[in-house]
Amino acid sequence: MPQHTLSRPGSLALTALAASLMWAAASSAWAQKPPAPPAAAASGAAPAAKPPADPTAPKPFADVIKDAKQQDGYLPVWRKDDKVWLEIPEAVMGQDLMFTANVSQSVGERGLYASQMGPDWVAQFRRVGNTLQLVARNTAYRAGDDAASKASVQQAFSDSLLASAPVASAPHPERKSVLVDASFLLSDILGYSTRIEYAFRLPYGLDRGNSNIEKARADAELTTLNVRMHFATPKMPAPPLTPSPVPMPPPPKTAPDARSFFVGVVYSFAPLPKVAMAPRLADPRLGHFTESFTDFSGDMKPNQRVHYITRWRLEKKDPQAALSEPVKPITYWLDRNIPVRYRAAVEAGVLEWNKAFEKIGFKNAVVAKQQADDADFDTLDATHASIRWFVGADVGFAIGPSKADPRSGEILDADIGMSDVFGRGARRLVVEDLTASSEQRLATLMSNHRAGQTCNYAHEAAGELQMALDLLEARGEVAPDSPEAEAIVQQVIKDTIMHEVGHTLGLKHNFKASTTITREQLRSKSFTEARGISGSVMDYNAYNLSLRGEAPSTLNNTTLGPYDYWAIEYAYKPLDAKNEAAELARIAARSTEPALAFADDADADGPAGVDPTVNRFDLGDDPLAWYQRRLNLSRELWQRVQARTPKAGDDPLRTRRVLSSGFRQLMVMPDLVSKYVGGLYIVRELPGPTQSIYKPVEPARQREALKFITEAFFKVDSFSFRPEFLAQAGPDYVEWDRAGPISIPDTVLQLQTRTLDRLMASGTARRVLDQTSYLAESQRKNALGLAEVYGTLQSAVWAELKGSGEVDRMRRNLQREHLKRVQGLLTRTDPSMPADAVSLVRWHAERLQADLRGALGKPGLSIDTRAHLQESLGRLTESLRATMQRS
């Protein structure tokens, strides 16, 4: 910055007076003596006077870094005391580079965890006057080679400014590089403040004055800086005098002072590969992550979107050898924070993928290395693919993101984060209180799946592990602290690492793979030990628990499936450029083989989630049979634990945990079973003259699913527990913030309302009405119609009206929830609900009105039942008379 001299008050007047006296003296001397000729007149013209120095010009390079220590590298780093400068070489200025930001330290709750891979950008350093800008390049829209195309795309789509700072020095005399104060990184480049606001809804701001650069590292291929950012808010808001209708998240609970916490970020600058890898186009019949962009290079393409699959650069040392080691293997560094007892399982999960690479000619394509305790690098930098352990107050997931070169799809870095939930799994399992909050957490988890925000395989697998260990313990087969329990935990860790490594190799989820193994094969221990329990490790595979009386089989997945080999072949098989398109088409054409069935997240959820065979955490070729099996397993667990005599020294939360284990298995069933109603089987295949992409689910299967879900969750005797058992389900009295008594009716009602919501949703109605469009005229008579769906549902909910008329409390709760939904459809316009569906709801409501009147005439009804039926009749009658409200 320019230097300014500040004068004392009055100095300006003194200076003016002195100048006036000096001018008078000089004028007197001039008058008394003629001036001598200028000295320069005898020797030629005088040299020009130097212009005054520019106070805004940067200081000389040497002056800025005087006494500073240098780390040479891609961007050399200079450090003196708490000052850090980056040296930006002339060759780097204006050139594309990879800039990444990863989170090394965080709050430890509500989604803000350590060891998480953050965003990345293709960026450039640009100098504008004396300002240095770090600009993120827009790679989502690309031009052709001609000047006009480049100009139009550049004008249409903007780059983004990530950060800027004054140039700190004049160019180096020889290298022509300039310095920039690295404190420009002490800003919220990765947008973490938004994530904090989302988590806590409090005005936390970045406190730059208490943020600092902790360390830096540089070599020829990388420059990394670890920064510690302080976020703070002046005060915690007082709670409202009356509860807010909008639920607000609590302030941070993990920080000693909720007003302040630190976040660690690892920033890396690395050059892009000098020669971009040859890209490989994606095929919709397989699931690979992609680098996608809109191509404006021509106007003759029917689809301007281009998708390059993401994959590591893998080349044979000996291209002629049938089996060769790679020039550079895919290396995963096991971070030093992984507990020693689990490192072997983590390594086994990594190396399992070598089986797929050997099939296409690579030996030791994947390597696992252990980071030494005294290593000087951070595994979150941009040149070390890593696996890191992390902990949190409410955490239980693993994630496997990667970063790729957008020019080609070449994966340049990957950092798998693995929470410690499995390490705790066999000894201190996750406790889920049976309250609305647990349902909200589950709903949040499901919405994250729908948004495709993260891979929650480990989180949900932890619940599966909890159920498995509780049931095996109840059967007397596995003790919590036994070697058998430890072996299960080790295998779960390997399975989870296989899954996440698959993501970092470029593979998406495959939620149809579990259906490629038959129920008979699942019961065969010899088959499952050799082949696994699913067609892919990229599915969310459930635990293969045997039913009561069945011989035990392999519990969880142990090896790669056929789909995994196929997907790796498509992405990594060395191919001659001339024949690549034809060979890839040949590989992808195997998609119709039953063992290679594929469907991703979008097929499992949302508007595209119409195929009942595409799910998470099911097993076998008949998902409906699996759900029936899962219900039986939960009931067996509850029966066995209720028969157990409590002992002194038992975990006080054990009863609650066991109840949670069973109910957790059931919470997703309404979403999954209801997909059969109006469902369509989907075949991933390219268009063809005889190819059918959609096929309606068989009417008999639709009716079977509808009957199963209504009987399983609506009948009174589906969830009966001994009073003595519930009376023993106390809280942990050591904790101040403890849960109250368990309400089984409330928990069951969560299942029931979820079932009602799915069966009465506009999406279900539209599916059922539309499915006849896919049927021949002769097949439509037997199709499941929407009138039958609503009639079956209403009969199951209000079954007492046809019988004695007496209704117990749990059934009254269910009937009120059904009536709420009927009222809503009768009195408020829902633009997404088909008009035929609303008409059918009204038709069935009038039938229900008549049934209620008839039931009220029956003698011997209790006061509770009579009051309930009278209120229901009144509300329904008002709704049928009401004027429709437009929304």
TrEMBL record:
Pfam families: DUF4953, DUF5117, DUF5118. Residues 1-31 form the signal peptide. Residues 32-48 have a biased composition (Low complexity). SUPFAM superfamilies: Metalloproteases ('zincins'), catalytic domain. Residues 58-105 form the DUF5118 domain. GO terms for molecular function: metallopeptidase activity. Keywords: Hydrolase, Metalloprotease, Protease, Signal. Residues 32-60 are annotated as: Disordered. Residues 118-317 form the DUF5117 domain. The keyword Signal applies. InterPro entries: DUF5117, DUF5118, EcxA_zinc-bd, MetalloPept_cat_dom_sf, Zn_MMP-like_bac. Residues 483-802 form the EcxA zinc-binding domain. Residues 49-58 have a biased composition (Pro residues). The keyword Protease applies. This is Zinc-dependent metalloprotease.
